Amino acid sequence: MPAIETNDLTKSYGDATALADLSLSVPEGELFGLLGPNGSGKTTTIEILTGQREPTSGSARVLDADPVADPIAVREAVGILPEREDPPSFLTPREYLQFVGDVRELPDIDERIDTWADRLGFRANLDTLSTDLSEGERQRVMLAQAFVHEPDLVFIDEPLVNLDPIMQAEVKDHLRDYCDRGNTLFLSTHFLEVAEQLCTGVAILRDGRLVAERDPRELGPDERLLDYFREEVHDDEGAIHEGEGTVRDDEGGAIHDNDATHGDDATVERRGDRP
Amino acid sequence: MTGGLLGRMIREEYRLHSELFGDRFAAFPVVVAALSGGGFWLLTLTDVGSGAVAGGLHALVFFFGLQVGSIGLVGRDALRDVLGDVTLLVFSARTLPVTWRRLLAVFLLKDLLYYSVLFLGPLAAGYAVFAAVTGVSAGSVGLLWLTTAVTFAYGAGASLTLAGVATRNRVARLALVAVLVTATAAAIAGRLDPVAYSPLAFQRSPSVATAIAGFGPALVLSVLGPLTFRPADGGAARTSPDRYSRVRDALRDRTGVATRSTLEVARSSGSVWKVLFSMGVLFGVTALLVREVGRVTALSPSPGIAFGTLLGLGAFTTYSWVTQFDDRREYRRYPLSMDAVFAGKRTAFLVLSLPAGLVYLALSLLWVPPVDVALGAVVFPLVALYVFGVTAYVTGLSPNELLFDTPRFVAFGAALALVTLPLVVAALAYSADPAMATGVAIGVAAVGAAVGLWLSARAGPRWQAAGR
Predict the structure, then answer these.
(1) Residue B365, φ and ψ in degrees, nearest 5
(2) Rounded to an integer, what distance in angstroms lies between the CA atom of residue A213 and that of residue B227?
(3) Residues of chain B with pLDDT under 70
């Protein structure tokens, strides 16, 4: 049984299509990378698969649960690390992970906190207010909250952002080890070298469409994922295709953020979400 | 350079609001003018005189200034929690060759100009209706605009100065508390008339003397604020012992949402004191209004019902505090229903707002009969529950966006008026028939609380579906 399976998954906002007919299958134990330029639909895909958004059409199964019909069950089973999100400013890492433990009903949260603080190297900062941590320290705490309940599947949007080189190497080792134990990782990343080094399967999105699937381990000695990526996401004039720009959804007030300077994806920043 | 910065900050503020609310933002001044015009017209049907109306209006604008003055100063992290990835020019002291003080002074001036045009101008236009019906001179409309604008600056400058002094040493903070306590005691004892040192004094009797006495404090505070404020960035990393477990156990909080929200309020700028302070301002305003109504009309309003109602309405600010750091996108990542999130928010809201309101009701025992205070103690929590339900249902976890989102603003105002108006009438009619007024007040507040509980139960499903 695949850990993730999607069939013709589509997400539209009015006339704009963020994701079109995405069909994917990610086997258990895979370290899967979803690649694509800004605005290609990577974050939208993760948000749909984790029950944070509903697709316009199509279906998905995540660990044999339906993220549309039962999003809570999916979120119970998986870990999620979104891009550019910090722990709550006025809680300490210990308190934030205690909160996550309560939300996830983990009985032995204190032991888990110690374990993850040691593993990701933030034990010295366990009682520092998160607002006073460096960006790299906050990212370590966010990594811990995604793994603290030891899920079978973790979705990560840019796992190594803000980490120093030593911690990057340690996190890469941890991710490999995590998948070696039969767990599944679904990474969204702009860093092709990360995908090359880590992933056992990659898919490339362009304008919300799946344009290629590869196993980086099958690349020839002279092949680079970057060349392959360029080939798939360049338009005829040779420029990297960056998505379709700003989109407002049909409920008003919603912004389709293709901000290349933030490295963001085709996520819909819905600050003014209105029912 | 200051002029260019000011223009850019004004553009930035407008773009921020238009980005948040789209085309609906443009209708906001029109709605303010229509609502205030309607409200003032209703007041012409009562015995309330123009002096009381102007007094109430200045008090509300002062409170508004206090709120607005602090909103840009909560820190970049908190602002990002509220608005998303937003960086305002006021935070650019580290990257631009502009001092923090100059940025803050221009920020304050920008707020004054921006809100004077978009909010106070329409408010004064609405007052023109009142002036036309009651025969007050047309010039008084312009005068009201001027004095409310200075009152707004008074409030914004006061909150900035309070925040500024709070960033200084313990001696400065103690000195500030001593000044506030002394002034309050003098006002209660009748030795100090706070109105004489506010722009309202000039509005009531324009002269050079009232201009100096009335506008002086606003000017002083508007200068003191930027001078005293120091940004919180930098310095040693703050640590805290684990309070989470203790608070969670005390609240019997299964999901942790109430615990987290309470800790966030307690540790952010102003701590839990900001809840007490905002309620205190409303308490003071209500006390003044009750006194004024009793003085200028033949009515003898019930302070208990008035305090209970206004403090309950004032609990809106507590809702704002307990949701200030929330991003609904974060909660969507957890195996947690929005029902559970709003239940946790309600616990935090009640834990913070009820003690604060009850403190002021207890304080009113100094001059209000115990039976009347007891009536207020019944009305207050019931109205607070109604306010929670309406706010949660209408605004979700983004009450700070309410102000300029015209349809939501209208819906929210109408929903509050449904309960507030009968309660105000009951307060005003108390002396004529105490038993009837008591029954109406408790009955309306109880029905309001039931509706509030129902709305807060509906808020979860409503906001669960939103944005998916």
Answers:
(1) -60, -20
(2) 60
(3) 1-2, 19-24, 46-48, 70-94, 231-236, 403-404, 467
Residue A187 resides in a domain? yes
* Of residues A61, A33, A82, A68, the one with CA closest to residue A269: A82
Query: Does residue A150 form part of some domain?
Result: yes
Note whether residue A274 is domain-resident.
Answer: no
The edge-to-edge listing of strands for the beta sheet with A201-206 is A78-81, A153-157, A184-188, A31-35, A201-206, A209-214
Max Cα separation, chain A? 57
Distance CA A149, CA A171 (A): 17
- In this predicted structure, what is the pLDDT of residue B22? 65
Domain housing A31: 4-269
pLDDT higher than 60, residue A168: yes
3 state SS of B300:
coil
Domains of chain B, by residue range, sit at 1-231, 252-463
How many domains does one find in chain A? 1
Residues with Cβ within 8 Å of A27's Cβ and at least 6 positions away in sequence, in order, are: A2, A3, A184
How would residue A226 be classed by pLDDT, with cut points 50, 70 and 90? confident
| Residue B430 main-chain phi, psi, to 5 deg | -60, -45
Distance between CA atoms of residues B123 and B57, nearest Å: 9
Query: Which residues in chain A touch residue B83, judged by CB atoms under 8 angstroms apart?
Result: 271
CA A143 to chain centre: 11
Chain B interface test: which of A68, A95, A114, A155 (most B C-beta within 10 Å)? A95
The span from the CA of B409 to the CA of B395, in Å, is 9
Interface of A with B in 41-80 (CB under 8 A): 50-54, 72-73, 75-76, 80
Structure tokens at B384: 């607070």
> Which residues, other chains included, contact B70 with Cβ-Cβ below 8 Å and sequence gap of 6+?
B159, B160, B163, B269, B270
Instruction: Check CB contact of A129 with chain B, cutoff 8 Å.
Output: yes
* Contacts with A128 from chain B: Cβ below 8 Å: 237-239
Any idea what the CATH number is for the domain that residue A64 is in? 3.40.50.300
Q: Provide φ and ψ at A269, rounded to 5°.
A: -80, 105
CA distance to B50, B59, B137, B173, per residue, from B35 (Å): 18, 18, 21, 40
To the nearest whole Å, the CA of B458 is away from the closest chain A CA by 12
ipTM: 0.82
| Cβ(A249)–Cβ(A270) below 8 Å | yes
Residues 199-258 of A with CB under 8 A from B: 248, 252-255
